[in-house]
Design goal:
It contains twelve helices and twelve strands. With 349 residues, it is an alpha+beta fold. The chain folds into two domains: 171 residues, Gcn5-related N-acetyltransferase (GNAT) (Aminopeptidase, 3-Layer(aba) Sandwich), CATH 3.40.630; 168 residues, Aminopeptidase, CATH 3.40.630.30.
Length: 349
């Protein structure tokens, strides 16, 4: 008689799995939560799945992933539109089982993984290291005065400068979301030359989070009443997530980003939240990394890992580059860029 443990690797659509399976720690992090996945599905129609290992009728490990099929590429992603996506996996051996299952299901697809805290996936030899990003998190369990004390002097000076120059931070109503979005669009177009997310993405975030009291849009106004910056904060578990920021390029001397972040800390303390997740930063974003360092946050690495089948043809994204260069040109009307974003952004998963 074979008394070895009997396990199976199974797959189920994400929202069906949420309703039928006892998946632990879903609400532990924004990027595994049903609310965030609902926003992604409503906005981009992302195909989301749970792959899990069942042992003696109990779930031993699971991963959340998306299946991407578009004119750019075909891939399995853990997980699209997420800074990182850590799921409860019991060991490198279980990652190997997931890898084999993906290869059986989608043999011509590459696999992309964004990992922060799971050491086992980095031990699995099926996946190659691709690159790092920086990640920051601020422990907000200390009293507000200690959090202020531990921030860098330059950060505190900038907050005080914003106050002296009359910058006011308000907790916005939904009617102010369009002010945030118009500024967000201009910054991504004029500074970074990249597509903005479509407006419906932020509207879906508002409906899912702000309407249920699990998030806030903080807006910064100068003394003339002009909207000069905004931060979107979302709550999941015991953590406040600093998810989106924008600020007027001609108002940076008023230091709206610093005072907006400080008021985010104040908001976290009011809600008795123990951490403020500052998300990912590319290594080339030295100014952003320095800003996050100066808030008093600690840092670690996000690991991008992957696998590509033999002879996999990576997209050179020439069509995307052509569309991006043209639709983000300074002479292009913003209305045309919004139209392009609605069409293109769901292909950037």
């Amino acid at each position: 008689m074979d008394d070895k443990p009997q396990f199976q690797v199974k797959t189920m659509p994400f929202f069906e799995a949420v309703s039928k399976l006892p998946l632990p720690r879903l609400e532990h992090n924004l990027f595994s939560s049903p609310s965030w996945m609902a926003v992604l599905h409503k906005t981009y129609e992302v195909e989301l799945f749970v792959k899990y290992i069942e042992l003696n009728n109990k779930i031993r490990s699971y991963v959340i992933y998306s299946v991407v099929r578009n004119f750019l590429e075909e891939k399995v992603c853990v997980c699209s539109y997420c800074d990182y996506c850590d799921c409860p996996v019991s060991g490198a051996g279980d990652w190997h089982l997931f890898f084999q299952s993906w290869r059986d299901d989608l043999p011509n697809y590459r696999i992309a993984i964004r990992n922060l805290r799971d050491p086992f996936v980095r031990q699995c030899k099926d996946f190659k290291f691709l690159y790092h990003e920086m990640y920051h998190v601020l422990d907000t369990s200390d009293p507000l005065e200690l959090l202020w004390k531990h921030a860098h002097d330059s950060f505190k000076a900038a907050v005080n400068q914003a106050r002296r120059k009359g910058v006011k931070v308000v907790r916005c109503q939904k009617s102010e979301l369009k002010k945030f979005y118009e500024l967000h669009l201009r910054v991504r177009k004029n500074k970074y030359r990249i597509f903005p997310q479509p407006y419906r993405f932020f509207e879906n975030i508002w409906n899912e989070y702000m309407d249920s009291g699990r998030g806030v849009l903080l807006g910064a106004y100068d003394k003339s009443g002009r909207f000069i910056g905004g931060n979107v904060y979302l709550i999941c578990g015991n953590t406040l997530f600093y998810k989106f920021n924008t600020s007027a390029l001609d108002a940076l001397d008023l230091r709206p980003n610093n005072i907006l972040f400080w008021e985010g800390i104040v908001y976290a303390k009011e809600r008795n939240l123990g951490a403020l997740d500052l998300g990912s930063s590319g290594y080339e974003q030295t100014g952003l990394i320095r800003f996050k360092d100066h808030t008093g946050a600690s840092s670690q690495l996000i690991y991008h890992l992957g696998f590509a089948p033999k002879n996999y043809v990576f997209s050179k994204k020439r069509i995307l580059k052509f569309l991006t260069n043209n639709l983000t040109a300074r002479w292009m009307p913003n209305a045309v860029l919004k139209w392009g974003s609605d069409i293109i952004y769901h292909n950037l998963a």
